[in-house]
Amino acid sequence: MGLPGFTAQSGLYDPINHYWGSAVAPTTGALVPHFLGNEFSDGGVYADSVQGFQMPGGTFLPSIGLCGHAGTYCCAGGKCDPGLVCNPNNICRVPCGACGQKCCQNQTCNAGSGCVCNTEGICRKPCGGAGQKCCANQTCNLGYICGPDGTCQECGFTFGSCCPGGLCQPGATCGFNGVCIACGDPGEACCQGLFCNFGANCDQFLGICR
Length: 210
Known about the structure:
Blueprint: H1 15-19, E1 32-33, E2 40-41, E3 85-86, E4 92-93, E5 116-117, E6 123-124, E7 144-146, E8 152-154, E9 172-174, E10 180-182, E11 202-203, E12 208-209
Antiparallel strand pairs: 1-2, 3-4, 5-6, 7-8, 9-10, 11-12
């Protein structure tokens, strides 16, 4: 009586033919599972017949797509498909956290990179604050203006640059030259809204508090 998996020619058990008779022939560079520790090999020929699913006669099982792809285990040597990297958990992922890359989980970026996760989910150098580079379209945080050197500088204070929109700090108003000047006291310019201090009135024709 014939037993499954045995051949008349050799009388030897032939598990690959019995269980994998419909498998596609292996191809060069195929990614196949590794027996040990949920690791994987790249389908190369190894001296150890266990590593890489090497079968008698040098046959390898075909790729079954278990490693190297996004969300799967990394292959041997930390290999992943192009555009992916092997993360510390031995999983292939799109790289994240470095400046210019997408933010990692919890909107974090790599420690020490100097970058932070922006509103678009990309790790970028901080911008818009005092001494920081200007953000897109030469914009800065409220209370700062993009200076000629491309960094954000304080604005709105008396004798300083007016903030975007011609805004100044209380007690100052934006003059014609784009500089904040003192306002509100008698003899000074009227503040925004034609306001003056100490009960003085704004001469709207001259724009002076009297």
